[in-house]
Design a protein that fits this description.
By secondary structure, the chain is of the alpha+beta class. Among the domains are: about 130 residues, Rossmann fold (3-Layer(aba) Sandwich), CATH 3.40.50.620; about 60 residues, SH3 type barrels, CATH 2.30.30. The protein has 7 helices and 16 strands. The strands form 5 sheets. Strands 11-14-13-12-15-16 form a 6-stranded antiparallel beta barrel. Strand 4 and strand 5 form a beta hairpin. Helix 1 packs across helix 6. The longest helix has 20 residues. It is globular. One of its GO terms (cellular component) is cytoplasm.
C-alpha cells in the first residue's frame, strides 16, 4: 500500500473477494521526507500515514517494511550505473522485478502469505493448459483502460511470480477507481498520482545524475564529427532528446537536431536530423518470459515505452543450451528514439509474452549497433 488511491482500492477489493488481507507499505527512501514536495515523489512519511489510515478504515493489519537498502542497490544504483555506461534504464521495471515481486514476494511467502496484490492496472487471467501442473496457467494481459494500462512495466514478471500476483484494478478505469475510493470514504480519493522517476522528486534527471556522477564536460558533435557545442556529461543525454542541448551553431537548413547516440567512453554526444532516429530492428537480452518461451519466429506486438504505441513485429528468440538468450525483433515500421537500456515488451493480442532489455538497435539491411 503506497498511500495512493490505487493500492487503497486494490486492498479493499481483495478484502471484498474474501481474502485475508494485510497491508504493507514499503519504506524505500533512506531519508523519507515528511511531506511530498511534488506529485512525482513517493514513499514519504505522509504516504505511509495515508496508507495506514486506509488500512484502519478497512480493519486490516498494517506494517511498514524497510527495503530502502535493497531498493538502493537494485534500483537506484542500477539506474546510475546504466546511465554511466551510456544506456537509458527504466527503474519502474527494475523495481517490479527486484523489489515488489521478488524481495517483497519472497518475504511474504517466508511469513506464510500466499500472494502479493498491487494497484497496477493490468489483468491476470487463468487459461487451460494441459502442459502445466494442475492444467491451468495464469496469463498477464493489458488492463481494460488503455490510458492507464501498466502491463508494460510488469513485463519483467516470470511465470512463478505471476502465479502469486493479483491486480484487482485491471477491469476498471481511473475515474471509476476514484469514485469507488470516495464512496468507501478513503481520504486519498483525490490524491494526485505519483510519476516516474519516484526517487528524483523534482524530475531533473540530468541534475540528479550530475550530483552522482559529477560534471564531465565534453563535445557535442554532428554525424561528421564537427563540434557544435559542449555538454556537462554524456551520461545526462539519451537518444531522441531535443531539448537542453544548448547548441550555438544552427543546422544549415534550420531543422532541429536530436541526440542520435552517446558514447560515455569518449564522453561524446552525437546529434543529427530527425530521420536518423528511426530504427526497425531491436536486439534484446536479459529475457523475462511471463509464460511459455516463444519458439521460432513469432508475430508479436512490440512496445518500447510505458505509454508508447504497440508496433506489429516479428520476434525470434536465439540462444539456449547454456548460451545466453537474446531476442531479435523486426518492427513493421520504424520507431524513433529507441535507446540501449530501455525495455521492449512483447504482446500476443492483449497477452504479455515477455520482455527484454534493449542491447542494440539498427535498420534492416544495415549493421545493428
Amino acid at each position: 500500500m503506497s498511500g495512493g488511491v490505487d493500492s487503497a482500492v486494490a486492498a479493499a477489493r481483495m478484502l471484498d473477494a474474501g481474502h485475508e488481507v494485510v497491508g504493507v507499505h514499503l519504506a524505500l527512501a533512506q531519508s523519507a521526507a515528511t511531506l511530498r514536495e511534488s506529485a512525482r515523489g513517493c514513499c514519504t512519511i505522509e504516504d505511509a500515514g495515508d496508507a495506514r489510515r486506509v488500512a484502519d478504515r478497512l480493519g486490516i493489519p498494517f506494517y511498514v517494511w524497510d527495503m530502502a537498502e535493497r531498493f538502493r542497490e537494485d534500483v537506484v544504483e542500477d539506474f546510475v550505473s546504466e546511465y554511466a555506461a551510456g544506456r537509458t534504464p527504466n527503474p519502474c521495471l527494475r523495481c517490479n522485478e527486484k523489489i515488489k515481486f521478488a524481495a517483497l514476494l519472497d518475504k511474504a511467502l517466508a511469513l506464510g502469505f500466499d500472494a502479493v496484490a498491487t494497484g497496477h492496472y493490468a489483468q491476470v487471467v487463468e487459461v487451460t493448459d494441459p502442459a502445466v501442473p494442475g492444467g491451468l496457467r495464469r496469463e498477464l494481459r493489458r488492463a481494460v483502460d488503455p490510458a492507464k494500462d501498466q502491463s508494460y512495466v510488469l513485463g519483467v514478471l516470470d511465470a512463478d511470480q505471476l502465479a502469486r500476483s493479483f491486480f484487482p484494478l485491471g477491469d476498471s478505469t481511473k475515474p471509476q477507481i476514484r469514485e469507488e475510493a470516495a464512496a468507501r470514504g478513503f481520504s486519498v480519493a483525490k490524491k494526485p498520482d505519483s510519476h516516474d522517476i519516484c526517487f528524483i522528486a523534482d524530475g531533473d534527471t540530468r541534475g540528479w545524475l550530475a550530483g552522482r556522477l559529477g560534471e564531465r564536460p565534453g563535445p557535442i558533435v554532428d554525424v561528421d564529427g564537427t563540434v557544435l557545442g559542449e555538454h556537462g556529461g554524456a551520461h545526462g543525454y539519451t537518444v531522441g532528446q531535443r531539448r537542453g542541448l544548448g547548441l550555438k551553431v544552427p543546422a544549415a537548413d534550420g531543422s532541429p537536431r536530436y541526440v542520435v547516440s552517446t558514447d560515455t567512453r569518449t564522453n561524446t554526444v552525437v546529434v543529427g536530423p530527425e530521420e536518423l532516429l528511426g530504427v526497425d530492428v531491436i536486439e534484446g537480452d536479459h529475457l523475462r518470459w511471463c509464460g511459455p518461451v516463444p519458439v521460432g519466429e513469432q508475430r508479436v506486438g512490440a512496445q518500447v515505452r510505458a505509454h508508447g504505441q504497440e508496433i506489429p513485429a516479428t520476434a525470434l528468440v536465439e540462444g539456449g543450451d547454456g548460451i545466453p538468450g537474446r531476442v531479435r525483433v523486426h518492427l513493421d515500421e520504424r520507431v524513433r528514439g529507441v535507446a540501449p537500456g530501455q525495455s521492449v515488451v512483447l504482446y500476443a493480442g492483449t497477452r504479455v509474452v515477455g520482455s527484454a532489455t534493449i542491447a542494440a538497435t539498427g535498420s534492416r539491411g544495415a549493421a545493428v549497433d
